[in-house]
Amino acid sequence: MGPLVLLRHGESVANANDVFAGWLDAPLTERGRTEARDAAKSLAGLRPDAVHTSVLGRAAETARLLIEEAGWELSPSAHWRLNERHYGALQGLVKNQARLRFGAEKVQWWRRGVDGCPPGADDAALAAQRADPRYMGIPEAAGVVAESLADVAERMTPYWRDVLAPELAAGRSMVVVAHGNALRALMHLCMGRPLEETARSEFGTAIPLTIQAAAIQAQIPVS
Predict the structure, then answer these.
(1) Could you tell me which of 181, 185, 180, 182 has the C-alpha nearest to residue 195?
(2) What percent of the chain stands above pLDDT 70?
(3) CB 28 within 8 A of CB 42
(4) Per residue in 64-82, pLDDT tens?
(5) Per residue in 190-207, pLDDT tens?
(6) Partner residues linked to 5 by β-bridges
(7) Looking at domain 4-219, does it have CATH number 3.30.830.10?
(8) Pairing mode, if any, of strands 174-178 and 209-211?
(9) What counts of helices (H) and strands (E) characterise the chain?
């Protein structure tokens, strides 16, 4: 079994402005694009069999720049289940605005509590989501209104079980470019760590985390 590399996207405009992005698209900043290219240097010598990314632009752009800079001859594969956590009514708000509106303690619980789920997105936001070509024909995706971290782990389980785990079991080395909460949920699934523990994991922008096969093998589903 090859290694699994987890990579959060490079700095986005939402990161720079301290905004809850969630499923909203936020392009990379110039710094974020540089970070994505620099990640390739950190992974010098790696020749992955595949790169997976979410369908959100900041992850897809990071994956494209990483592949281009590293000279890997492959195209990224996009999976909606790798999306960032859906922040519902918080999406698009500056974090300080959210704290003023809902209370700092409640917002912190929504951000870092395993079961904390913010209020759902409003009708206009959901209509736009359901009309998005990336989610049309996928009722599970189109119907997401807000998520806790536990919800993200549940949403990602089919991706781990049916997509990523079989690739790893076949001996392939994989790179996953996604988002902080998606990677926390994936660490829970692929390493067997309690979600309460991985909830405290911090992922810097475009800093690769390599997980060796020995840390994953016991969690591979038996077919």
Answers:
(1) 185
(2) 98
(3) no
(4) 999 999 999 999 999 999 9
(5) 999 999 999 999 999 999
(6) 175, 210
(7) no
(8) unpaired
(9) 11, 5
